[in-house]
Amino acid sequence: MLASLDGKATRPMAEHYGRRAQGGVGMVITENVAINVAGRQMPRQPMLAEEAAVGSFAMVATEIRKYGALAIIQIVHAGRYAGPWDQWDATPRLAPSAIPFPLPPNRVVTPAVMSAGQIAAAIEAFANTARLAERAGFDGVDVHGGRGFLISSFLSPRMNKREDAYGGDFAGRTRFLHEVIAAIRASVSPGFIVGLHLMSDELIENGWQLEDSLELVGELQSSGLDFVMPMVSTFETMRMTGNEGLTARPLFQHEETRAIASATKIPVFANGGFRHLTVIERTIAAGETAAVGLARPLFADPDWLDRASCSPNTTGYCPCASMLCLRTQLTGSLCESWPEAVKERGYLGYEHS
User: Fold this and answer.
1) Closest Cα to residue 79, out of 154, 179, 165, 161?
2) Model pTM score
């Protein structure tokens, strides 16, 4: 995370994303950008909530589009995971229900129940950030509905125990997401891309299940969504017995993605554990996904695609050293796989080609 402390984009952040676009990808989706202070998770997490930040984010969009890639900004409200975590008690964190959960390293905390007014404000904040993103020159937004963040916590019957219109049955628990998507689509131009990072399966018995996702994507076909990118688990459930090491496995969530792709006409993007170009090409050719997203491979080596195209068996000159690495969130935006000179600089930009 290379934003300033107040959430504005910086030149290193713009170069980071521009350098990935320069590597030949068709679309660059940014890290998750907070829609407001209440939804911000990390100290240097980007935040696009006010007109004053538009200019800085325009710099990011310009660098991405310069190389022919679509510029997509991922937008999020962290909900119960909002930070900073070391000051968690200072301000009540928002969630649909007051369900306790473990907060690293060794705490159990309980979020505050959102009021009807706070729910309405959050929906408008998503729409506002999308408006500002379009003004900044982005081609679209990717709405983060996974990992236990606010949207996914509304979906989950384990995290959502509300008895009003935003809880209870399937229709109630999905209402918040439907209204977020509708508010965004009504706030941007028709050609602006609206995608969704969807929690495909919570991976816990009493949580959101794959069958729920299959029903939801059917409903979303008329919502104006342009793509769905499924992702399994939350920060909590990925650490539970049976799920340890899940994200280190090749194609660890592709079965869920393939099932969702067969249940909707919305383009579905696969991601997670794709490490070889031949596998990517075979997956797309088989019609199992419309596209494949790469995070760690491109973070470690922005020229991964070009190098892999030349030699299908390579993972690049600078392969990801750890598929479980959380350094990017906990210490900034450094990769253990980068040369020491690059790590000292703090980011892999154009000068490190």
Assistant:
1) 154
2) 0.94
Integer Cα distance of 127 and 343 in angstroms: 36
Domain boundaries, the chain: 11-18+25-294
Residue (of 244, 250, 255) closest to 275 by Cα position = 250
- What letter represents residue 263's amino acid? A
- Nearby residues of 151 by Cβ (< 8 Å), 6 or more positions away: 77, 79, 143, 144, 145, 176, 177, 180
C-alpha triplet 80, 240, 249: angle, nearest 5°: 105
Name the residue with tokens 């982005």.
138
Q: Which CATH architecture has domain 11-18+25-294?
A: Alpha-Beta Barrel (3.20)
Q: How confident is the model at residue 81 (pLDDT cuts 50, 70, 90)?
A: very high
| Whole-number Å distance between alpha carbons of 148 and 345 | 33
Residues 6+ positions from 244 with CB-CB distance below 8 Å:
none
